[in-house]
Amino acid sequence: MTDASRRRGDAEASRGWIDLHLYAMAAAAVLTGLLLWWTNASWRENFVIYPPMRGELRQSRADVVKGYLAVERHLAGESSIRLADVDAFMDQAVRGIDKLIASSHVPEAGRSVLAEQAPDFDSGLRAYKHGIVRFQKLLRQSLLDQGQYRAEHAVERHAAFADLEKLGDGLDDAIQRWVLAVVRRQDRLNRVLFFVWLSFLAILALTLTLAGTRRRKAEAAMRESENRYRSLFDQVMDVILVVDNGTGRILDCNQAVTTQWGYDREELIGRESSLLRPHSPAGALRSGAADPSDSPRAAVRETRLATRLGEIRDVSVKTGYFTLGDRDVRLEIYNDVTERKRSENALLEREATLRRLGDNLPDGLIYKVEVRADGTRRFLYVSQGVERLFGLAVKAALADAGAVFARYLSEDFDVLRRAETLSLRTLGTFDVQARFHDATGAVRWGQLRAAPRRTPEGSVVFDGILVDITEYKRVEERLRQAMAAAESASRAKSEFLANISHEVRTPLNGVLGMLQLLEASYLSPEDADHVATALACCRGLVRVLTDILDFTLIESGRLVLRNEPCDVRGLVAEVLSVFSLESARKGLDVAVVVDPATPERVMTDVARLRQILFNVVGNAVKFTSRGAVRLDVCQASARGEATHLLFAVSDSGIGIPEDQMEAIFEPFTQLDGSFTRKYGGTGLGLGIVKRLVGLLDGHITVDSVPGRGTEFAFAIRCRPLPPQEARAASVAAPAADQDGLVRVLVVEDEAINRLATVSMLRKLGFAASAAEDGDVALDALEEGDYDVVLMDIQMPRVSGDEATRRIRRGERPGIDPGIQIIALTAHAMAGDRERCLSCGMNDYLSKPVDLAALGQAVTRAAAQRRNGDA
Questions:
Q1: Closest to 330 measured CA to CA, from 284, 287, 288, 273
Q2: 580, 702 in Cβ contact below 8 A?
Q3: DSSP code at position 375
Q4: Strands 642-651 and 709-720: what pairing?
Q5: Which H or E run includes 593?
Q6: From the CB of residue 250, how many other CB atoms can be counted at a distance below 10 Å?
Q7: Which is nearest to 725 in space by CA: 647, 641, 644, 646?
Q8: Angstrom distance (rounded) from CA 738 to CA 203
Q9: Before 848, cis peptide (omega within 30)?
Q10: 23 to each of 27, 31, 194, 202, 218, how far by Cα in Å?
C-alpha cells in the first residue's frame, strides 16, 4: 500500500470518527432541545413579548428624535423640512406608545411578570405619551415662531426633549428589570440543565477522546498556521478590527480589545461595530473627520468610542479595504489618543482659567511686560483690570505701555525704575509699592509683584500682578495712629503709677522709719503692742501697694526678672519669721521641713520667690485659726544644669470650696467678697503668685477640703550652684571697721524722711549727717570725709542721678569718684533699679525702707569701701 493511499485511508477513518462525533453531538442537541422545550414552556413566551415591546419603544423614541432633529434642521436653515413631516413623526411615536399601552393589558404570563417588576410601567407609558403630545405642540410653536422668542423656545425644546429622554430611559429600564427577573428564574432552571449536560458531556467526552487523536493530526498544520497569524495579530499594541463592509459586523479582533477596551473577543465578534459608539452626541464624528459611509476609501479619521466600563476614549482610526474570500471587508486600526486630547484640552482650559482669573481679579490685574535691551517696555498681556484701575482699554495698554506708566506719580515712578533696574540685574523678585492716578484722577496705592525671566532674544519678561492696596494703606495708617495713641496712654499710665508710687512711698517711709525708731526705744508693754500693731499695718499697706504695682507690671509684660544666688533654707526661715508673732498669737504650730537633698543655694529671682512665699504662707496663717501650718521644700527633679524645687504649704484652716478652686487665682477675687467678710485683702495675692510662678518657668496646684485645710504646691525652675560657688556666695560681707565709725551722708529733700533716715542710721550705730538736695550734697562731700552716701533721686535743683554722674566724672576735685552711693528712693517701678545702677550708683533701696535692710546695705557698702581703699 502506497503512502498516498494510506493517508487517504487515515483521512477517511478520521472523517468516520468525526461523523460519529457529529452524530453524537446532533443527538445531544436534539435531546437538549427537548429538555429546554419541556423546562421552559412556562416562560418561553416572555422572550416573544420582549423584543417587540422594546423595539416598539425604541422606534417611538427614534420617531421623537427624528421629529426633534427635523425641527432643529428647519430652524438651522433647511427649508425642505415641513410641519407635516414633524407631525408625522410625532403621530407615529404616539401610535407606537398607544400600541404598547394596549399590549401591556393583555393577560399573558410575561406581562404579569412585567407588572410585578415595574408596577408603574403603564403610568410611565401614559406619561411618555402625554410628553410626546406636549413636545409636538412645542415643536409646532417653534416652527411658527418668527424669531422674537426663538431663544426662549430653544431652551424649552431642549428641556422638554431631555425630560422625554429621561422618561424613555425609565421605561427601557423597567423592561430591562423584567428581563433580569426572567433571567433569574432561568438561572434556577439552568442548574437542572447543567446536571443533564454533565451526563451528555460524559458521553461526548468518550467520543471526543476516540476522535481527538485523529482530529488533532488533521488540524495540526492548520493550528500552526493560525497560531502564527494570531500571534502576530495579537501582539499589535493598537486595536485591530476586521469588519464585514456589507453588514458592519465584526469578524475578528486582536487581544488589544481586552487590554485597552475591556471587552472579551467573544463579546465583539459577530456584533456590529456601532456597538462601540457612545449613545450621547459626544460619540459623533468630529468636524472634518471622514465617515466611511460617505467615503469608502477614507484613510484616517478621529472619533470617540465607549469601553466596556463606559469610559469614553478618543481614538484615531486608520481604515483599509480588501477582499477576504467572497466578502468585502475593511481593516480598522484604532490608536488611542485620549491622553493627547486631554493634554490639549487641559492646556486650553488652563489658559482660559488664567484669563478668567486675570479678568475677574477684584481690585487688581495680571500682566506680562517685556523690557527690551534698549529700555523700552511693551505689554505682552494685561487683564481687564487695567480698565477698572487706570481707565484704559486693554487694546490701548497693549498698544502703548507708556500710557499706563504715565499714570504713576513721578516720585513713585522713580522708585519703580530703581526696583526694575535691580531686578533686571539680579533677576530677583520685583516687589514695590507705588501710587498712581485711577480713571477718575484720584490717587491710589498699588502693590506690584513680578518674577523676571530672560528670553533667548535678550529681553526680560516680568510675569506679575498689580493689586490695589489703597484700603490696606488707610487701615495701616489708622493702626499706626491707634498704636501711637495706645503707647501714649501706656506711658501716661506708667507715669501716673510712678507718681502715685512715689507720693505714697515718701510719707510711708517717714511713718515706717519713725515707728521702727519708736519700737527700738524703751516702751511699756502696752505702748510696744500699739507700735507693733502700727508697724504691721504700715507693712501691710506697703505690701498692698507692692502687689498693685507688681500686678500692673506683670499684666503689661514689663516685669523684669533677676537671676541671683538664693539661700533656700535662709529664705524659708526669713519668711516664716515674719509671721512668727501672728502665729504665736493664734497658737499655731508652724513647721518647716527642707529635704536634705535640696541644693543649698540656687540661681533664681530671690525677690520674686520671697514674694510668692510671703503670699502663700501669709494666706495659710491668715485663714487658719487653730491647728498647724507646714512648709515642705524638696528637689522635684534634676536634668542637666536645671532643677525644679517643689514648695508645699499646707494648713488646717477653713479650706476652699471646689467650685472656687480656679477663681481664687483670678485678680481681685476673694472667697468672701461681702461687706461682712471676716478676712480682708485686695484679692491680688494668689493672682500675682500664679503669674510669678509662670514667669519662673513653673506651675502651681491647690488641693483643699472645706473645713479641714488646704495645700498649695508650686515648683519653679532654677540652677543649683556648685559647692564652691555656694560657699563663695555665702561668705558674709565683712563688718564695719571697728577702729572708726562709718560716716554716712543722707541726701533727701523731704524733711521728715531726712530726719527719720538719719535717726535710724544713728540708732544702728552709724555717724550720719544730711543734705537737702544734690547741690548741697556735693558741697558736703567736698568739705567732709564720708564712707557711704544715701542718695534720693527726685530732688529740686540737682537730682540724685545727676549728682551721682557728677561725682563719677570727678567734676569736684575734693570728692572721691569711687565713693559708695546707695539709691534710697520712692521710685519702685520696673526699670528704676536698673536706671539707678546705670548712672553709677552701687546699690538700690526702695522706700519705705526697713531698719534691718538699711543697716545691711550700709554695712555692705562700708565694707566694700574699706576693701577698695585697702
A1: 273
A2: no
A3: S
A4: antiparallel
A5: strand 589-594
A6: 22
A7: 641
A8: 137
A9: yes
A10: 6, 12, 21, 15, 19
- The CA distance from 241 to 330, in Å, is 8
Pick the more confident residue, 362 or 246: 246
3-class secondary-structure state, position 279: coil
Dist CA 213 CA 402 (whole Å):
93
Buried b (16+ CB within 10 A) or exposed e, 530-545: ebeebbeebbeebbbb
Which set of grid coordinates corresponds to residue 714? 508650686
Please state, in angstroms and as integers, the Cα–Cα distance from residue 593 to each residue in 611, 650, 655, 732, following that order.
19, 12, 22, 25
- Cross-sheet strand order for the sheet of 820-825: 767-771, 743-747, 788-791, 820-825, 843-846
Distance (Å, whole) CA 171 – CA 529: 109
Q: Which residues contact 463 (CB under 8 A, 6 or more apart)?
A: 368, 450, 451, 453
Span 758-783, average pLDDT: 85
Pair type for strands 743-747 and 767-771:
parallel
DSSP element (H, E) containing 748: none
Question: What's the pLDDT at 647?
Answer: 92
* Residue 680: closest CA among 693, 666, 690, 670: 670
Q: How high is the pLDDT of residue 290?
A: 40
Beta bridge partners of 704: 710
Q: Which amino acid is at 123?
A: S
Contact 70, 89 (CB under 8 A): yes
Q: What pLDDT is recorded for position 358?
A: 67
Residue 796 main-chain phi, psi, to 5 deg = -70, 165
CA distance 576 to 579: 5
What is the three-class DSSP state of 43?
Answer: coil
Residue 567, C-alpha cell as written in the block: 539661700
Average pLDDT, the chain: 76
pTM of the model: 0.38
3-state SS, residue 813:
coil
Q: Which of 541, 526, 515 is nearest to 760 (CA)?
A: 515
133, amino acid identity: V
3-state class of 815 per DSSP? coil
Distance (Å, whole) CA 292 – CA 328? 14
CA distance 556 to 488: 14
**H helices of 275-372, where?**
338-360
SS3 sequence of 710-744:
EEEEEEEEEEECCHHHHHHHHCCCCCCCCCCCCEE
- The region of weakest confidence among 87-96, 232-241, 401-410, 541-550 is 541-550
Q: Are 551 and 689 in contact (CB under 8 A)?
A: no
CA angle 199, 200, 204 (to 5 degrees): 125
User: Residue 461 phi/psi, 5° resolution?
Assistant: -110, 130
pLDDT digits (tens, 9 = 90+) for 731-746: 434 344 444 588 899 8
Answer yes or no: is pLDDT of 359 > 80: no
d(CA 347, CA 350) in angstroms, rounded, equals 5
Burial 111-122 (b: 16+ CB within 10 A, else e): bebbbebbeebe
| Mean pLDDT of the 801-807 span | 87
Residue 163: phi, psi to the nearest 5? -65, -45
Whole-number pLDDT of residue 543: 65
Phi, psi (degrees; rounded to nearest 5) at 683: 80, 10
**Which helix (H) or strand (E) element contains residue 122?**
helix 121-144
Phi/psi at 626 (5° precision): -155, 160
Which residues, 6 or more positions from 132, have their beta carbon under 8 angstroms from its beta carbon? 60, 64, 90, 93, 94, 97, 164
Q: What pLDDT, in 10s, does the model give residues 652-688? A: 888 877 766 665 666 555 544 433 344 444 456 677 7
CA distance 532 to 365: 80
Of 582, 536, 574, 370, the C-alpha closest to 459 is 370
